[in-house]
C-alpha cells in the first residue's frame, strides 16, 4: 500500500464513486460492506472529511451507529462490478456478502475497520459528526424523486485519517 494525500485522487474518486464504492463498517466482531454511489470528499473543521449517507433501513446503519469509524474502498478501473451489484442489492442481515461475492478484506492501517482488497483507492475515516436528514430542509423535488418512501439518510462525516493506493 502506498500512502497518499487525501486529495491526490479526488477527481478520480468522485467520478468512480458514482459507479459504486464499498462502505465498510465494523462493530465488535461484525463486519459489513455496502455499495454507495453518493458521498462527498471535502474539508471541514480544519480536517479532510469523507461524508457518506446511510438509510436507517440498512444493516450497515445498525453497525455504523455502534461504531466510530468506517472505510471507503473505491475501484477506479471499473473492476468488481458484480460484487458492487451484489453488495448494493443484498442485505448483510441475510447474506455473508464477503463469501457470496468473493470479496476479501484486509486490516485497515489507521482504523480497526477493514478495507476491501482489490480496490485501487482506500479512505479510512473516524466519525466526527452525524446528522439525520430533516425533510423540511430538503428541496421538495429531491424529496419527491429520491425519498418517496420517506426513508431518509443519516449523514456521517468522517475525518480522513488515512488514504492509500493498492499497488
Automatic annotation (TrEMBL):
Pfam families: Flavin_Reduct
Molecular function GO labels: FMN binding; oxidoreductase activity, acting on the CH-NH group of donors, NAD or NADP as acceptor
Species annotation: Orenia metallireducens
Family: Belongs to the flavoredoxin family.
Name this polypeptide is given: NADH-FMN oxidoreductase RutF, flavin reductase (DIM6/NTAB) family
Domain Flavin reductase like: 22-166
Gene3D superfamilies: Electron Transport, Fmn-binding Protein, Chain A (2.30.110.10)
UniProt xrefs under InterPro entries: Flavin_Rdtase-like_dom, Flavoredoxin, Split_barrel_FMN-bd
Amino acid at each position: 500500500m502506498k500512502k497518499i494525500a487525501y486529495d491526490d485522487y479526488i477527481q478520480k474518486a468522485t467520478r468512480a464513486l458514482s459507479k459504486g464504492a464499498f462502505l465498510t463498517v465494523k462493530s465488535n466482531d461484525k463486519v459489513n460492506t455496502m455499495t454507495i454511489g453518493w458521498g462527498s470528499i471535502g474539508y471541514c473543521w480544519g480536517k479532510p472529511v469523507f461524508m457518506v449517507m446511510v438509510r436507517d433501513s440498512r444493516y450497515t446503519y445498525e453497525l455504523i451507529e455502534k461504531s466510530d469509524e468506517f472505510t471507503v474502498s473505491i475501484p477506479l478501473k471499473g473492476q468488481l462490478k458484480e460484487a458492487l451489484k451484489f453488495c448494493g442489492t443484498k442485505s448483510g442481515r441475510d447474506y455473508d456478502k464477503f463469501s457470496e461475492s468473493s470479496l476479501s478484506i484486509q486490516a485497515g492501517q489507521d482504523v480497526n475497520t477493514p478495507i476491501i482488497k482489490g480496490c485501487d483507492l482506500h479512505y479510512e475515516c473516524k466519525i466526527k459528526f452525524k446528522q439525520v436528514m430533516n425533510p423540511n430542509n430538503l428541496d421538495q423535488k429531491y424529496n419527491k424523486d429520491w425519498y418517496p418512501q420517506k426513508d431518509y439518510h443519516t449523514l456521517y462525516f468522517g475525518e480522513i485519517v488515512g488514504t492509500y493506493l493498492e499497488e
